[in-house]
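Title: [Solved] Putative membrane protein 3D structure

Original question kept below for reference.
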Amino acid sequence: MRLPKVNNFLGCMTIHTGAAIIGWLCLINSIFVLISLTTYAAEFSQISEAQQESMIERLGNYPQNDTTDKEDIKTVVYYVQVIFWFIFAIGICKFLIDLFLVIGVHKKNHYLMLPWLIMQGLGCILLFTALIIWSVLILMFLVQILSNGGDDHQFFRAIAITLGLIINSVLASYCFLIVHTCYTNFKNHLKQSAMVYVKM
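Solution (posted by the thread starter after getting help):
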């Protein structure tokens, strides 16, 4: 299946410029994520065991007071650290993939753009899957609200989440199409250059 090609970015810029803007925005976003994760790690490493115990009890893991075991606290802290380092590793991978996209666009190297396209394509598939599942759930939820004469606040919250998910899916797909078109243009240009070189 061939994906549609886009002629320009936002109606006024070239595809190459659009791919560069998308790459830089993604790279800046990755840097902010890594900075905030590093800040969180620095803050979490300075928390004493007594503070960790009070945080765990406050978050509701131990509803009864004076029942917190030291081993349970260490287990919870260990799992939090494992999850954090997993998210941090994903953040580093995303930073490298975004960096490859920026370098690939500026050097017109389509091979460096491929990891970003794969990551974004998987992200778009997951977003559309979430949108389909959410649409089914929202219909059931709206029927329940309307039949019970429920709260309007819940209704508007559900509509806002739906609109946010739709906008996010459309933006992710548009960015994917822009970068894919740029990728295809670079790839075709390389093939044409190779054919001219062979003919000479």
